[in-house]
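User: Can you write out an input/output pair for a complex, sequences first and structure second?

Assistant: Here is one pair. Inputs:
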Amino acid sequence: MAPLLEIQNLEVCYGKARVVKGVSLQVSRGDCLAIVGANGAGKTSILRAVMGLVPAAGGRIILNGVDLTGRPAWERVTGGAGYVPEGRRVFPALSVEKNLLAGAYRVADQKKVHHSLARVYEIFPRLQERQRQPASTLSGGEQQMLAIGRALMAGPQLLIIDEVSMGLAPVVVNQAFQLIDRLHHEGLTVLLVEQNARKALQVAEWGYLLENGKIILSGRATDLRGHPDFVGAYFGRNVQVK
Amino acid sequence: MNYWAVLATTVGIWVLLALSLNIITGEAGQPNIGHAAFFGIGAYTSAILNTKYGVDFWGALIVAIAVSALVGAVLGLISMRLRNDFLAITTIGLNFVTVAVFQTVHYFGGAMGIGGIQPPRIGGLAFGTLEIAGLIWVVVALVVILNRHLQKAWFGYALRAIRDDEAAAAAMGIDVRRYKVLAFVIGTGLAGLAGSIYAHFMTFISAGDFGFNISVTILAMVVLGGRGSIPGVMLGGIVLGMAPEVFRFISDYRLLVFGSILVLVMRFFPSGLLGQGSRLQELLTGFIRREGAGARVR
């Protein structure tokens, strides 16, 4: 069966700086895949290119068998991708519920929208309690729930999550990863980008290690965790792993 | 009576301009410091059609809206490539270019402006100041109704999402380009409408009526009242539209007082008088809620 998402030789440039240098990877249905790497490795740029928020300077992005390279962002959403951006990026002036409804922007069927809303409230009862509050009044953890809930509203087949742990307290980080694990086990395909590699590789089945815009290591998450190159990418090459 | 009708018309035109800019700047969050350009484009289109080609007010009005909206659509497309301060400077430039064209091109009357514009008429009845005042406030009411509908429809959510975070809005599948262009089209079209009424009300226009200071005044109305708030923006238009009259007695010091009020409001009401989260707005909604609750208990 064709993969749900296929990235072929992706290149992303900001001006003259090439930050993603020929990355290829595949996400099959039901997978949970993590791209890990240090700050500035190009992880977020890959996701932004997948979502059409930055143009791909080269390569192709194929979602659900459709080549979306060069197509506008909204076609990725109708194509089945839900996106949780880095730093949450909720709409601060809109209420919690309107933030969620914005996530269902591309869903025409109101029944489906109500169904998604009920499901999101079931997953995050806290959001229902605060449905009328402006999103800016939520705590960091609640905003992260809202960002994930908003991405779920369109009923995506592929959930793309960028740095879910960023700026959150350790307890909340654990909850966020438990939630991702739950969504994955309920059948959702997940593509994660994380600096917190240890956590990400506990949840993910497959891992890709990115360094300077290139994938230098990939494989089963369990194999990756102890790999010397993996530690080297974060701490430098001469660190001993115990 | 005549004085009040003229004042009502002038204030009505300011309110309409403030409402129109609010769609672009307040709702969609796109800076536009050259809004008077569209006011001018509407006024000149209407004036030229009326004086050179004998088109009556109603026909000229529609063309004026269309021409302003068309130029607005181009600016909307430009806004896809330019962000924030760059877009703001582009709009200022557009204002200066428009005024320069009106001032120097003979076809537009040059420095002499365009005179002899016919007032609106229905059948044999020519509108006097009172009828024009009625017309402008009917238009304001219609625009408020339209604006309310847009705010509550998907269009409103989409615009506010774009204003809050453009990239996140795009990632939700909102077609940012379409909505930005639409916001510019509607906002500039309404400014053109205000311009057309202005031209037929004044019967004489010149480039100076649409200068940069007018753009800044319109923007001040939106910011003072509260970006995105319809009652707020209307209040801003009324307060700043009336200010020159209210402060007439201090003549030369008018601008000083005017500016000081703006500074004070921004200090104590940073989101505008009736903007989201402003103290006045919270007081009012709290009051309305208490009243409502009281009514239910009774």
